[in-house]
Amino acid sequence: MASESISVTTSDDQTIQLSRKHAQMSQTINSMLEDSVGADQEAIPLPNVSSEVLKKVIDWCTHHENDPAPVEKVKKLNKKREYKAKNSTISDEWDKNFVNAELRVIVDILLAANYLDVKGLFELMCKHIANELKGKTPDQIRERFGIQDDLTEEDKAAMRKAWGATKNDS
Amino acid sequence: MELADLPDDVLLSEIIVRLPPSSISALSQTCKLFNSICKDHNLWREKCRADYNLPPSLYGRFEWSTLYRLLNDPVVLTWGENDGRLMQTGDKSFGSNIEEPKVVEGLRGKKIVQLSGSGWGFHALSSDGKVYAWGRLKDHAQNILQAEVVPLNHTFTSISCGRSHALALTDRGQVYWWNDIHKPRLIMEGDIVSAVSGWTSGVILLRDGSVRYYSDLTRQPAEHPNINESLHSLCLSTGTTTTDDDRFVQVAAGEGLGLALSSSGQLWDLIGRKRLTKFENANAEHPLTHLTASFQKFAVYNEAGDVLIGSSRDITEPQVIKGLQKEGVVQVSFGDWHSGALNDQGQVLAWGGWQNGARGFKLNGKKDNVEEPHPVEGDLKGMFAFQISFAGWHSAALAVPMSIDAFEEMIKKRKLDVRDEEEPEQERPRRNLRRGPFLPGRRGRSMGLPVQPPNKI
């Protein structure tokens, strides 16, 4: 019988125990488990995820462990994502608190969720970043996201002309 | 880790696609990197689809971000036999043919994004998912002189007319059929990608790549389709090979024509159950990427700008129309005796018979048959056409002004205040309509879009 917990090794060389239920919420780990059925269960290496970020991922999985499974996996047809219009509404109050973190952490969790293929968490992080971008001027976006301004005044004038006047419509 | 560390495809397909145009504009003006990312062709193509209901079948390497900003008020133009089918002001007197493209004033402000010609009229799809119809679907029937809305409370995402019937697809994957716009009938429901008509027939493509072909939809659809196939079932029964993940991604119908194109570029005659290899092999380096059909003819396109024409009279033999090759042609459409093409510069070309003005021009003042494509002007002069529909003895085009400056000039001229026409939709780009040159299409570069796996419409 399969054990109820799974060991994983993070990028900072920590071994962390995951419940099987949480591990299976990651399509990446789930596939590794399916591929190694019957083999000795060694710790699964997760070289792209730090222990700090993995703990955040586990927090999210714990809160969402009883959610219905996503209808379909994140499709990677021809390694190209589909460009489909999506909303950015975050309705779960717990999720709203969860995303209240430093940008560095948000980006790290997003990349981890992408690597681990945890669809709900990945979408939550993308929605949060979209919401943070909405309604801001170029200056406000640079400040919020720490983007270095490498544009000359001529560049900016040309862009304003090409894009038209920028107004907030959110 | 910073925002710029995210892979471009995550930024575009998961984050930027969720933003309203003003925020995309703001992000693009923060630094060179984001300015370059925000110009992405597929992003704006999807914004055109999501915000304006522009059919995904619309094809062409247009400057989609500029088209998006101009889509606020597309113009419908019609020309040809004026017996009530053109919705022109002269309709009441009839008899006076419209010999050049002329704006249909009665459709201004309706935000039409797709046109489809029937035997004696047109159907059109609007941004808000309504289907309008004018002219008639049956010979000798009474004309609808001012466009009527098909009475169904659904959001339609595509419309396609045969000679005497129409197929329309809703955003919930329902296919409606009618030969009288007041009596629409649901004929199929499911994970449907497209439903296209041609003459008496129609083909429905499902997301799994299977196709249903109906040979006669004139009176009422048969309970079961005449053909129910997939690429793999055809390959299996004909001893042809393909890859596991290859499947049909586009379909087309016409008189005696049922065609399907696969993601690898295999072109199949569904009725004759055979591959049309002469079309596939015409340019070994560039597989076929696109397929359209009307009446007795079809057209296939590739990324190199080749357009080959096929006919139900000899379906296996490709014909080349002089003057259309490597010209960035994105659509070819056929009437009874006249034909038209649209290029990625937004220019409409026509050839064939004059047909009471349906060709759109006289050559040296003469109505004689014209073999080579020539530009069509009239009210299309100064406009960028992004779709055409030629049928019977009539023609139509959908166009936007050539530049945003020209757009404002036109509004001033027409004394039409678009602000009154605009719906209270937050994400519509009216606010961005200020200044900016219309960047011409990219003639000479790869003109076709690769065949994408079918998206949920």
UniProtKB/TrEMBL annotation, chain A:
Stored InterPro entries: SKP1, SKP1-like, SKP1-like_dim_sf, SKP1/BTB/POZ_sf, Skp1_comp_dimer, Skp1_comp_POZ
SUPFAM superfamilies named among the record's database cross-references: POZ domain (SSF54695), Skp1 dimerisation domain-like (SSF81382)
Keyword Acyltransferase recorded: no
One cellular component (GO) term of this entry: cytoplasmic SCF ubiquitin ligase complex
GO molecular function ontology, one term from the record: F-box domain binding
Highest taxon in the source lineage: Eukaryota
The entry's keywords: Hydroxylation, Kinase, Transferase, Ubl conjugation pathway
GO biological process: protein ubiquitination; ubiquitin-dependent protein catabolic process
A Pfam family recorded for this sequence: Skp1_POZ
Domain (SKP1 component dimerisation): residue spans on this chain: 119-161
Record pathway: Protein modification; protein ubiquitination
Domain SKP1 component POZ: 5-66
Family (UniProt): Belongs to the SKP1 family.
Subunit text: Multiprotein complex (SCF) with cullin and F-box-containing protein. Capable of undergoing aggregation.
Protein name, UniProt field: S-phase kinase-associated protein 1
Automatic annotation (TrEMBL), chain B:
Pfam families named among the record's database cross-references: F-box-like, RCC1_2
Spans annotated as Disordered: 417-457
Signal peptide residues on this chain, from the entry's feature table: none
Residues in RCC repeats: 129-172, 346-401
Coiled-coil segments: none
Domain of life: Eukaryota
Annotated F-box domain residues: 6-47
Keyword Repeat applies: yes
PANTHER family xref list: OS09G0560450 PROTEIN, REGULATOR OF CHROMOSOME CONDENSATION
Protein name according to UniProt: F-box domain-containing protein
Organism: Planoprotostelium fungivorum
